[in-house]
Write a structure and sequence with these properties.
By secondary structure, the protein is mainly alpha-helical. The protein is built from 5 helices and no strands. Helix 1 runs antiparallel to helix 3 and helix 4 runs antiparallel to helix 5. It is elongated. It starts with 21 loop residues before the first helix and ends in a 6-residue tail after the last helix.
C-alpha cells in the first residue's frame, strides 16, 4: 500500500463539526436529566409559589416572607437552570457558546451556595466539577 492510498481519519468529519469525545457525551448524558429535571421542578414550583410561601411562613419562625419574594427566587432559579440546560445542549452539539451559557449561571449559583452555610458543600462540588469537566473539552468545541 503506497503512501497516497493510506487514509487518515479526519478530526473534523465532512459535516464541518468536530468529533464529539466519548467522555463529553457521557457528561452531557448526565447533565441532561440533572438540569432538565431541576428546571422542570422549578417551573412547577413557580406556579405554586403561594403554597411555598404559606409553607415557609408556617414552619420557619422569624420575619414572614411575601409571595413575590418566593416567586422571584423560584423564577430566577428556573431561568438559571434552564440556561444551563440550553448550554449543555449546545455543548452536545460541540458549540463553544454552550460552555459560556452553561458556565455563567453555574458560577452564579455556586457563588451563592458557597456563602450560604445551610447548603451542603456536595451540591456545590457537583456544579463546580461539572464546570471544570466541561471546560476540559472547550478547546475541541467550535
Amino acid at each position: 500500500m503506497s503512501r497516497s492510498e493510506k487514509t487518515i481519519t479526519p478530526a473534523v468529519p465532512e459535516t464541518g463539526r468536530p468529533k464529539r469525545p466519548f467522555l463529553l457525551t457521557l457528561l452531557c448524558c448526565f447533565a441532561f436529566p440533572f438540569f432538565g429535571l431541576i428546571s422542570l421542578l422549578l417551573l412547577v414550583s413557580v406556579f405554586y409559589s403561594g403554597f411555598f410561601t404559606d409553607l415557609i411562613n408556617t414552619y420557619i419562625v422569624g420575619k414572614p416572607v411575601k409571595a413575590v419574594g418566593v416567586f422571584s427566587i423560584l423564577f430566577l432559579l428556573f431561568i438559571l437552570y434552564a440556561t444551563a440546560l440550553t448550554g449543555t445542549i449546545l455543548m452536545y452539539r460541540m458549540k463553544r457558546a454552550g460552555y459560556y451559557l452553561f458556565g455563567i449561571p453555574m458560577l452564579s449559583v455556586c457563588i451563592y451556595q458557597l456563602f450560604q452555610p445551610d447548603i451542603p458543600a456536595l451540591s456545590t462540588g457537583i456544579l463546580i466539577s461539572l464546570l471544570v469537566l466541561f471546560g476540559v473539552f472547550l478547546k475541541k468545541m467550535r
